[in-house]
Design goal:
The complex is a heterodimer of chains A (about 110) and B (about 110). Helices cover about 0% and strands about 55% of the residues of chain A. Chain A is mainly beta. The radius of gyration of chain A is 13 Å and the shape is globular. The termini of chain A are far apart. Chain B has about 110 residues and is mainly beta. Chain B has no helices and 11 strands. Helix content of chain B is about 0%, strand content about 55%. In chain B, the strands form 2 sheets. In chain B, strands 2, 4, 5, 9, 10 and 11 form a 6-stranded mixed β-sheet that branches. The chains are: A mainly beta (about 110), B mainly beta (about 110). At the A-B interface, strand 4, strand 5 and strand 10 of A face strand 5, strand 9 and strand 10 of B.
Chain lengths: ~110, ~110
């Protein structure tokens, strides 16, 4: 079974702090993704990566950056946290971008920025 | 623009059948996924359709009509544990981006 592990389940940070969210997958998946999930808006793609050191912007990349130094690890960085970034953050991975390859999600990090 | 619409909430009775609809308008199409998400948990994969028609998997079936931009998830013999959110998602042509609807919260009552 694929396991996607996010380092923190809950985080509380102050406005202006730099925040790191870590994600590790154990199935040698090529692709990794960061989404945020907000009530009524569903999951929105922040960034994704299809290979080590490669990254692409998703639909809402502003205020975020990412790092993928190793295949199994994908980090999301909030350069200067703001209250609008209070959300549930979900990391996901997929084996390929081929037909039918589903996303496997971590359990999420609920971030509160005060 | 890109848009995926599904009802916000539905309620059904244990043992019954429920159909959750999804309509989509996206810039490309490389398959439609349904995920289940229990409260406080990660979404988990339920089904995938890329060709028109019905895919059946036990109590769950999913239907796709690409010409109509329409899909539905059919849940039979509902159980209390089926109370969850059901997310409709479309993968774009390039294969990297998956766009999600806001999800349908299903309540199963006794």
């Amino acid at each position: 079974d694929v396991k996607v592990t996010q380092s923190s389940r809950y985080l509380v940070k102050r406005t202006g702090e730099k925040v790191f969210l870590e994600c590790v997958q154990d199935m040698d998946h090529e692709n990794m993704f960061w989404y945020r999930q907000d009530p009524g808006l569903g999951l929105r793609l922040i960034y994704f990566s299809y290979d080590v050191k490669m990254k692409e912007k998703g639909d809402i990349p502003e205020g975020y950056s990412v790092s993928r130094e190793k295949k199994e690890r994908f980090s999301l960085i909030l350069e200067s946290a703001s209250t609008s970034q209070t959300s549930m953050y979900l990391c996901a991975s997929s084996f390929s971008r081929g037909l039918g390859s589903p996303l496997h999600f971590g359990n999420g990090t609920r971030l509160t920025v005060t | 623009g890109q848009n995926i619409d599904q009802p916000t909430e539905m309620t059904a009775t244990e043992g019954a059948i429920v159909q959750i609809n999804c309509t989509y308008q996206t810039s490309g199409f490389n398959g439609l996924f349904w995920y289940q998400q229990h409260a406080g948990e990660a979404p988990t994969f339920l089904s995938y359709n890329v060709l028109d028609g019905l895919e059946e998997k036990g109590r769950f079936s999913s239907f796709l009509s690409r010409s109509k931009g329409y899909s539905y998830l059919l849940l039979k013999e509902l159980q209390m544990k089926d109370s969850a959110s059901y997310l409709c998602a479309v993968r774009n042509t390039g294969g990297f981006k998956t766009i999600f609807g806001a999800g349908t919260r299903l309540f199963v009552k006794a």
